[in-house]
Amino acid sequence: MNNIKKDNTEEKILDAAQTVFIRKGMDGARMQEIANEAGINKALLHYYFRSKQKLFEAIFKQVFKQIFPDIKAFIHAEIPIEKKLGIFVEKYIDLLMKNPYLPSFILQEIHRDPEFLASVIKGQGIDLHELFTMLGKEMEAGNIRKMDPRELMINILGLSIFPFAAKPLMQLIFFDNDKKAYKEFLKQRKETVKDFILNSILLKA
Amino acid sequence: MNNIKKDNTEEKILDAAQTVFIRKGMDGARMQEIANEAGINKALLHYYFRSKQKLFEAIFKQVFKQIFPDIKAFIHAEIPIEKKLGIFVEKYIDLLMKNPYLPSFILQEIHRDPEFLASVIKGQGIDLHELFTMLGKEMEAGNIRKMDPRELMINILGLSIFPFAAKPLMQLIFFDNDKKAYKEFLKQRKETVKDFILNSILLKA
DNA sequence: ATTTTGTTTAACCAGATGGTCAAAATTAGA
DNA sequence: TCTAATTTTGACCATCTGGTTAAACAAAAT
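YS: structure for the whole thing
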């Protein structure tokens, strides 16, 4: 078969590039380092992807997709809002625990090249309208406090993402650089963030 | 006077370096660009600061100091906790509105060189003990919900910082890239974040 | 005025880096 | 098996980048 080897090499490159780009960012990453990580010749990188920029864009798109957990299910599930939010937070933090490097990488690159970010987002076709409608209905029904739904979403994201994005700093000043303790803290966040949010927005009858 | 000219140039360099480093990060910044920004010869950078690394460290320390707003006052003021937290959030968001680039820069660099970060922090002598004691007392007194004070602090920071750190992304997906609207949103956050937090942790008698 | 000290510059250098290319090696097809 | 196409490599190149240096320039000191 023609594709077995090809796919294999291409995949090796993508894996290696993801590792290096995420660790060092576009500016800090070196093509040679990616080649080493993939165990191949540097020229092969240019054979499969024309340039560093092109390779990076492939990686960024690939990585970026991961940061949108199953939003559809979140919106349309027939369960109470507090359960919905709980599941959303849990899924999100689970994702970040498996990919703790994601936030810093994304945050770094969205600042470095916002135009490219815009093109990627447009290509994703995210529809927030449904999400906002759903939240609006919950507010109308008196289930949660009335507020700008964008505010609510950004709060959820901030509470979930920030501890990962700022990990080295938070671990250092609040946990005496105790890696295990911080990991445990992040794990518990699935519960504590959910509680924190619900405590704030739930209207107890 | 000997120092007039010297201080002037050194300051010009520091200003220029801060601008460029914050915009591009350590890896993305170029010495030539800093020199241009300062309107001087590139060799002068090395005359005043031995190397790029040394210059960067000077900038990082300088910038890093700014991210700790007056915590002492926050701890010891003789006002109710809800007012304290409100003031803290307001001060923090004010700081970020004046320096919207700060979060992304810090987040980027704490990942790039955590050891250096550690050395800077040790040199700052931050005492969180007092802060935690104060929060503990408020919990004991039944003024706020009992919780890990580190959790509370990280929540406050996340809610305040995240919208700035993720600005290009949030502005794009939630505000249709409307710069003014997002700025207005950030301004209102001084109130909404405070409300969000207090709603969550305040125990109404 | 002249020396001395400190400041600034243009020219240059060595190493790194992204990228190219022709040849070698491997694979597929006849 | 022999040929054609594809994949992989080592060597190489142009450019960029941090850093150096010797000389020009300015300012103090004598």
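YS: worth flagging: Chain B touches chain A through 51 residues (CB under 8 Å).
IM: good catch. Also Residues 1-5 of chain B have pLDDT under 50 and may be disordered.
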